[in-house]
Amino acid sequence: MQTTSARIDLTIKSDPAEIAAVRKAVEETAAAAGLDEQGIAEVGLCVNEALANVIRHAYGGVKDRPIVVSAHCQDEGLVVTIRDWGNGVNPASLPPRPYDPLEPGGLGLICLWRMMSHVNYIPQGDGMLLVMKKRKPTPPAGPKAERP
Amino acid sequence: MSEVNPGMDLVPSTRVDAASRAVVATIRGEIDLHNSTDLRGVLLELLSKHEPKRLILNLAQVPYMDSSAIAVLVESLQKIRKIGGRIFLTDLQPRVKGLLEIARLDSIFVVAKDEADALSKP
Question: Mutating which of A40, A43, A45 best tests the B interface, going by the most B Cβ atoms within 10 A?
């Protein structure tokens, strides 16, 4: 396992006990990437939800399967990838259903679509690769230069 | 109110007011898929044991929760509605408040400033 503030590469087991530490490590990288507090929180939640989906759905709750999580800074913000070797079902290809707040399920994916700038599930043949990106907030325009 | 000790770090204290059929539970810590089933067990036991008209969850010490925790709250809400009760969420921290808003649950649960506010609401 390699961890730095600008990049992390983590290999974990599909155990829910692992989620919090990964979330916090990615949040640190998001901070290093220049995201603001809200952006950092949103990235953390999306990593949590994506990992929970892998554990519950791709691996069916089995706790000893591998998951590789990477995060690194880019000029535009943060890139997070999550690789699993599960059932290969692409959550993005599932038929959409109207969200009902009083019915279980679906909230995790809603968080991903709404909070991340880019979400792409890439089937791997032996599992799934999720690529998520979060752009840095655009700085406010500075004062216009005065003419001499 | 009488004190009940659930014996868990996650729910360190619970108070029951039999007269008003109110239960106040203090929840502590981050809640995700790892421990949301523990929270589920405590809340469902409180509901079945006391059948409260109002279940007040003090979330001042919950800086973070995920969708699995939200699912536990929704399940508890479905249960308490069957006995004519309501769930009050107090002292929401920013991340928890944000997730409730995305889940469109901020208007389904009764959100109160603090425990006193929850107890005083009609």
Answer: A45
CA–CA distance from B87 to each of A104, A106, A142, B2, B35 (Å)? Answer: 17, 22, 47, 19, 20
Inter-residue contact B74 to A107 (CB < 8 Å): no
Give the pLDDT of chain A (148 residues) as one tens digit per residue: 444 468 999 999 999 999 999 999 999 999 999 999 999 999 999 999 999 999 999 999 999 999 999 999 999 999 999 999 999 999 988 887 888 888 878 899 999 999 999 999 999 999 999 999 999 988 777 666 555 5
Shortest distance, CA B77 to any CA of chain A (angstroms):
9
A118, β-bridge pairs: A133
- Provide, as residue numbers in chain A, all residues whose Cβ is less than 8 Å from the Cβ of B64: 44
Cβ contact B32–A52 (<8 Å)? yes
Interface confidence (ipTM) of the complex = 0.90
In order of start, what are the domains of chain A with their CATH numbers? 2-135 (3.30.565.10)
CATH architecture classification, B2-120: 2-Layer Sandwich (3.30)
Q: How far apart are CA A26 and CA A62, in angstroms?
A: 23
| Structure-block tokens of residue A41 | 């929180």
Helix (H) or strand (E) holding B69: helix B67-82
